[in-house]
Design a protein that fits this description.
The chain is α/β, with parallel strands linked by helices and 118 residues long. Helix content is 48%, strand content 20%. The relative contact order is 0.18.
Length: 118
Amino acid sequence: MRILVIDDEPVVARVVAEALRIDGNQVTTACNGEEGLRNIEQQAPDAVFLDIAMPGMDGIEVLRHIRERHADLPVIILTGWASERQIAEARRLGVTDILGKPVPLKHLTEALSRSRLT
């Protein structure tokens, strides 16, 4: 699978990307929402792992833009700081899954497997 990881924390993005690569996926990272949205249009990933708490365009806004153009693209939220309101909004926008940080690496591939079933 082609996967995009959007996270403003370089260490988190790198660890998530490496864990997904071990399972044979092609992974690209983006350090903010704007870059992530450009990557989606240019690379057409099969799934996106998205942080909520990012400077500038936050993950909820990114998810909103994704849903406008790619309603069926699996998006898995990775967050350590989401409010109940943000979680509710992500669900309303049709997020595929929500994982809390720090996330056990096996949960990444489990969430990805679940996204293939939807």
